Amino acid sequence: xxxxxxxxxxxxxxxxxxxxxxxxxGNVTIGKNVYIGPGAAIRGDWGAIxxxxxxxxxxxxxxxxxxxxxxxxxxxxxIGHGAVIHGARIGRNCLIGMNAVIMDNVVLEEECIxxxxxxxxxxxxxxxxxxxxxxxAKRIKAVSDEMITWKTEGTRLYQALPAxxxxxxxxxxxxxxxxxxxxxxxxxxxxxxxxxH
Length: 197
Description:
The protein has one domain: UDP N-Acetylglucosamine Acyltransferase, domain 1. Helices cover 14% and strands 34% of the residues. The chain has 2 helices and 20 strands. The strands form 2 sheets. Strands 1, 2, 4, 6, 8, 9, 11, 12, 14, 15, 17 and 18 form a 12-stranded parallel sheet that branches. Strands 3-5-7-10-13-16-19-20 form an 8-stranded mixed sheet. It comes from Filimonas effusa. One of its GO terms (molecular function) is transferase activity. This is Transferase hexapeptide repeat family protein.
């Protein structure tokens, strides 16, 4: 659902996909090849939200801010399921893990990775390629070339997803039993832990 608010109408590039069960409100700008999943709440009611090209905001994420603040997701930022971004700037090609909370005035420079379930306190600033995790979060180590390559490959899947949704996604009635021919899709991308074994 796309909602105007106090004269602000969201801007969504035609190449992007916003799930109809997401809510995008007010002063929001969504760039090219962006995926917004169902249940995402992107509220540009008190300030602005800029989601640059190639980002993804997955299922049940929340993006919001205090009045007068602009939230920016720089190009290729990857926001995992259930994460909260409140008044922060997320740098280019960063990964925010599932159910992480990024508080006000946080700045993550490019290619940072924030672990799942982490809590990043207000006002924190992390330099390029910081691996951040914990509650409260702290810098654990530098993000390696191997880690950022893995992250970038995963983000490419989401960058391709809007076009795939436009071509293949459609409402349907469920089957009453599985179709013949198998129930598992092919996979050419593995979890980080899988890569370490």
